[in-house]
Amino acid sequence: MITLGLLEKNTFLEAVNKKSGANVLECYQCGKCVSTCPVSSYMDFPPREIMQMIKLGLKEESYMANSMWFCLTCSACSGRCPREIDIPAVMEAIRHLAIEENYRSENKKVKDIRKFHDIFLDMIKRYGRNYELRMMAEFNIRTRNLFKDMHLAPKALLKGKIPIGHESTKSAKAIQRMFKLAGKLEKEKR
Ligand code: SF4
Ligand code: SF4
Asked: Is the pLDDT of residue 6 over 60?
């Protein structure tokens, strides 16, 4: 449903602003973010359009777009934004809201990126660090692409680029507590 910000209450805009700490209404559509973004050509909607969609309350369209999943959080866009909008924070806010509200894109690339995110975060939660070999194996299994990049493994292993064994970091327990606390704070904020 389209909710025009000035005519009706735009709860999507409010939610994105609250989560990101940005004010999307400040965007005046100059497009500098698009020309700076290194991945805008891969996005369904580049950052400028995403800003406009939020202003129009186009929640589902924003959630289903691949834009926030392709965002690298590099901040190149916000560095050039004349309104000083924290665009990567806005992208991240949409990502989090889509997860919280259980929106799932059918786009294969988006699905794979989400799987990569989940596996990476799970590694950090469990070991306090990334464990590359396991991460690659889990990703290949979960994306049903068992032999993806396998030809690179022997070279990388021989050069010691991928450690075979792994240990948790000394701070793994502290990191686990941090995740718990962050989860609790997120729930309280909702
Ligand atoms: S650079 Fe800033 S003001 Fe310009 S379109 Fe992008 S977000 Fe909007
Ligand atoms: S932070 Fe995201 S949207 Fe901004 S330039 Fe980088 S990839 Fe593009």
From this structure: no
